[in-house]
Amino acid sequence: MSTLSATGITAAAPPSRQTGAGLQSQSRGFTIASRVFLIAFALLWLVPTLWALKTSFVSNDTASLGASAVLKDTSPTFHSYAVLLQSGDIWNWYLASAITAVGTVALTVFFASMAGYALSRLEFRGRKVVFLLMVVGIMVPTQVLIVPIFRELSSMHLLNTYWSVILPQVPAVVAVFIFKQFFDGLPKEMEEAARIDGAGFWRIYRSIIMPLSMPVISAVSILTFVTVWNNLILPLFTLSNPKLMTIPVGLATVQGSYGQRLADIQASAVLGALPLVVIYFFFQRRIIEGVAGTGVKG
Amino acid sequence: MTSQTLSVGRQRASSPAAEGSTTSSRRQRPAWLFLAPFAIMYLLFLVGPTLYMIVASFFNTSLVRGGLGSFAGLHNYAEMLGRADFRSGMWHTLLFTILTTPPLVILSFVFAVLANRMRRGQWFFRLTFFLPFILPSASIALIWVAIFTPDTGLLNMVQGWIGMSPTAVLADPKWAMVGVALATVWWTIGFNFVLYLAGLQDVPREVYEAAAIDGASPWQQIRYLTIPLLGRTTTLVVLLQIIASLKIFDQIFLMTSGGPGQSTNVALTFIAGVGFTDNRIGAASAASVLLFIVIIIIAAARQGLARLQESRA
Known about the structure:
The structure holds two protein chains of two kinds.
Chain A: H1 2-12, H2 14-56, H3 60-65, H4 67-72, H5 79-87, H6 89-121, H7 127-139, H8 146-155, H9 163-166, H10 173-184, H11 189-196, H12 201-212, H13 214-230, H14 233-238, H15 247-258, H16 262-294
Helix pairs in contact in A: 2-16, 5-16, 6-10, 6-13, 6-15, 7-10, 11-12, 13-16, 15-16
Chain B: H1 2-14, H2 18-56, H3 75-82, H4 84-117, H5 122-130, H6 137-148, H7 154-161, H8 176-201, H9 205-213, H10 218-229, H11 231-246, H12 250-255, H13 267-277, H14 281-312
Helix pairs in contact in B: 2-14, 3-14, 4-8, 4-11, 4-13, 5-8, 8-11, 11-14, 13-14
């Protein structure tokens, strides 16, 4: 009985089944082809990183023999890393990058959240003008301002101090918008209750708004941290003291000063990138959401 | 115009009942206090330098002397527009933008569409395509300079395998910019990739299911659904990409320093050279203003389009 009905169905529906199968196989073919294509490109994309890692684990002598010697090398050595970590320069660079990045993050989060709070909650005359200035400010390409910013920092006697890297990066208008947008979405009931109890705006900002804003604080912090850590043009011109150089500026000197120490050069590239790789693994989702959500690009 | 709007604002502020006006005046002072720290930084490091740049562009301001120097009128601008190296810098900036924008937009779109169809392993594609974007340009440059090194580099070895004669990419004026563009595509594609992935996440699955039931092939789905539905994202990606490419500095400074010869000299390396090597702040400011204007026009177009799309949506 069951076989009969089954054949009945097959007999009744051959044409539609055939096109269905045709489409399905076409789509399966597409899926396989696209998978192969994407994986091939992903592997290609890994090559430069893997190559840098591989080169950093051979001796300088092997590296100077050329790519095929590096490829064939089977005795990895940590020599380059040991040399770099002992020489001390890289620690100075890490320190400078950490101080400037953390300093900028602290000031940006604090100042931008206050401004975002004012724009979100407080009514005041000139609100529209402030808002317009912000929109204009978001368009200003700060890299193009490097010469006047240098002049200004020089007249403030801030060159060769960490402040010269921190202060110009604090007014990140995007951060204000991110905070404002987040505050706009917070319910107002608690604040109103606090107002009735006589709490001032500062108190509300500090003990109600900010504790509720941890997600956005961490998003702004991470984005700011990455931007400041990677900034080259500003510290390149404001920090000439080798002890104060940040990672990008320090790495920029490596090519010239290490000369033929090719393995050391790649090891220093890896060490410079390492903190950000760690950050990526810890805050993957937040970084990607932050970048995609704000369209922040260096 | 301004005074009119101002008086209207004032009327509106004072017209409500006494209670309303006290709240607003009570809120005035804290508002400015909350804005002040950020506003001061904004004025000091955004507005100030912008105004200084504009003013200095009309003077013979020097890095080694204090003050603005003597008035130069439009001389700095005339000099810049007449200088071959300024024009080549602007042209190379444009060339870099033309070389990087199409691959960065098209490849990131393709990668995102395909990765989005994958049921598993999305983390892997995000890692491979996106991670380089958040690494320092200095690390990227060291890696790619090594790859491009004549004789000992990876590229020449691969060229040898497939029987090509070796190219000294960064030492060859014909190829240097292509080499920098290649490294840039590798480095920054992740940004566009995640923007597209985010855009794709907003497309409801039912749309594709309906199309599949109607017998649309995967290719037709991409052509007639994905591309039009991601139109807004593409506009954003293209404009942000152009702005970023016009500001190119790091990769050039680190990989070629503008050479060989003038072949990769771009606007910002030129400006840095005039400002910091020739010590001519006035002249560098004039060049900065010209680049500034180009970028602001595209950024304003971006803002305008975003607003237009928002009001339509």
